[in-house]
Write a structure and sequence with these properties.
This protein has 524 residues and is of the alpha+beta class. The chain is built from 17 helices and 17 strands. The chain folds into 4 domains: 123 residues, Udp-n-acetylmuramoylalanyl-d-glutamate--2,6- Diaminopimelate Ligase, Chain: A, domain 1 (3-Layer(aba) Sandwich), CATH 3.40.1390; 116 residues, 2-Layer Sandwich (Beta-Lactamase), CATH 3.30.450; 100 residues; 83 residues, Orthogonal Bundle (Arc Repressor Mutant, subunit A). The two termini are 67 Å apart.
Length: 524
């Protein structure tokens, strides 16, 4: 936040007196700097209040003072503070007259006010201004977020933005027409300039820039044709600003090239205005992007059809794919949080059992290319179109199913769960279910399921035993890795496997027995 000389001059503890340049007190001050050099300009950056005692200056020489003051003004010094009672009992008239001629504010510093006290006051006032601005921006963020959650989010966001900026907020459509507006009118000239500024930042659809049949660019083309036969689109900035008749104008491109633009017109006030407007632009990008693409409406329609009894085959076309993968994701536990099951107190939930927050789950879905996300029971499930190959994501462990048709979504969900368990046990960032049907090609599915029911009948009443046996076999009999995958103690795994061997009356060290059991477990 800029601090002005007026705030400093009116500071009660400093007791400064304005001796010249009263009209320039609204100039922002960057810092206060003390220097007794005859020429301090090489060490100045501009925007300072220079503090002097005239130790090395002939402050009573009018010509010297005119040269001195003029050089300070040219260097960007915004004010001059003169300490009286050190070398001069009063500010020499030659310096006062020179400052008055150049319009440089001249402040008299009384004997009991130190230069360090002036510098400290500058810092304190700047800190207070920054804190006040931070509070204003934070309040604006909350208000905009609340407005975006209303039933009429776009008009609500525009209305709240115009109130915070004390100006006007306009949403322009892809064709340049005004879709919605809020706030006080600032004049036809301002509205026209804002509409022109919106055209500067609006992204251009490549379809609007095709070269003519002769190969030469037309009036609206941006350049030579691309290999695909289209001209390169005109690049547009994400935002632009201008000032018309004392009104600050700004335009922000919304969304990923949909063509919506937010225009803002308001009197210049605070540096935080751009931050507030940028937040509103982000919210409107989400709202207009969802509305423009229709994906939100499609997902809502899919949910309604499922609730009303529709099948997956009927719902899948609304979601934009014919074949899908199910991804199960688990947040990676930081080493500082990891503790063995033995170290936990009874009933304590381990870090691996925490349910990821909705924001993290949505971010994962966006990274995987899908908005169909379900965070529950410590696992995030994402339904991903088969055309998008899931990749490992930092901070997550992923299990991915095979690509299936909609009627096989439940089976794919099971595949993803098993792949995730294997990924966690082997500490791999991603495991994809690999269907390698060998025996499956030789045995009819009905016969395989009947065989599985008969062989595994002794375990039918205890699902935990069957799950433990399946995981244990998939990990080649690894006790520790099975314990990690199931989040149980390794002694529990040993007890369950021993119980399975007793119920099945089988030698689980025999590879033929293991093969038959694995084949049966694949068909349960």
């Amino acid at each position: 936040m800029p601090l002005t000389l007026a705030s400093l001059a009116h500071h009660s503890a400093l007791r400064l007196t304005v001796r010249a340049g009263e009209d320039g007190l609204d100039v922002p001050v960057r810092w206060a700097h003390a220097s007794e050099l005859a020429d301090p300009v090489p060490y100045m950056e501009g925007g300072e209040l220079l503090l002097i005692t005239a130790l090395t200056l002939d402050a009573e020489d009018p010509a010297a003072m005119r040269r001195y003051v003029k050089r300070l003004v040219e260097a960007g010094v915004v004010g001059l503070g003169f300490a009286v009672g050190v070398h001069y009992e009063d500010i020499p008239e030659a310096l006062v007259e020179a400052a008055r001629e150049e319009g440089l504010p001249l402040l008299e510093v009384p004997p009991r006010t130190t230069f360090s006290g002036v510098a400290r006051a500058v810092w304190q006032l700047m800190a207070q201004a920054r804190l006040a601005e931070l509070r204003r921006v934070t309040e604006a963020h909350r208000g905009l977020a609340s407005a975006a959650a209303r039933s009429d989010p776009v008009p609500s966001v525009l209305h709240r933005l115009s109130r915070h900026l004390d100006g006007r907020a306009v949403l322009f459509g892809p064709e340049g027409t005004q879709i919605a507006a809020a706030g006080r009118a600032l004049g036809e000239e301002t509205d026209t300039a804002l509409a022109k500024l919106a055209e500067v930042v609006r992204p251009v659809d490549p379809d609007e820039h095709r070269p003519d049949p002769a190969g030469s660019p037309g009036p609206g083309d941006a350049g030579p044709a691309s290999p695909a036969g289209r001209a390169r689109p005109r690049p547009s900035p994400a935002s632009a600003a201008d000032t018309v008749a004392g009104i600050r104008l700004a335009a922000y491109a919304l969304g990923a090239g949909h063509g919506f633009v937010l225009g803002v017109a308001a009197p210049p006030r605070d540096s935080g205005d751009h931050t507030v407007a940028s937040v509103a632009a982000v919210l409107l990008s989400l709202l207009t992007g969802e509305q423009h693409s229709g994906t939100g409406a499609a997902r809502s329609a899919a949910l309604v059809r499922l609730l009303l009894g529709g099948g997956p085959e009927e719902v899948a076309p609304l979601l934009g794919g014919e074949r899908w993968r199910v991804v199960h994701a688990h947040r990676t536990v930081r080493l500082s949080e990891a503790r063995s099951p033995e170290a936990r107190s009874p009933g304590e939930r381990g870090p691996e059992e925490r349910t990821p927050d909705a924001l993290a789950a949505s971010a994962l879905g966006a990274a995987l290319g899908s908005a169909l996300v379900d965070p529950a029971d410590g696992i995030v499930r994402v339904l991903v179109p088969a055309g998008r190959e899931p990749e490992a994501q930092t901070g997550w462990t992923l299990g991915v199913s095979a690509a299936v048709a909609p009627h096989d979504w439940p089976a794919a969900d099971t595949q993803a769960a098993r792949a995730l368990a294997r990924a966690r046990a082997t500490r791999a960032p991603l495991v994809v279910h690999g269907a390698r049907p060998v025996l499956d090609d030789l045995v009819p599915a009905a016969d395989a399921r009947a065989h599985a029911r008969t062989l595994l009948a002794p375990l039918a009443g205890t699902p935990a035993l069957a799950d433990t046996l399946r995981t244990w076999l998939s990990l080649h009999g690894g006790w520790d890795r099975t314990a990690v995958a199931l989040s149980v103690h390794r002694n529990t795994v040993r007890q369950r496997i021993a119980r399975c061997a007793a119920l099945l009356n089988a030698d689980l060290d025999d590879p033929d027995v293991r093969m038959n059991l694995w084949f049966a477990l694949r068909h349960t």
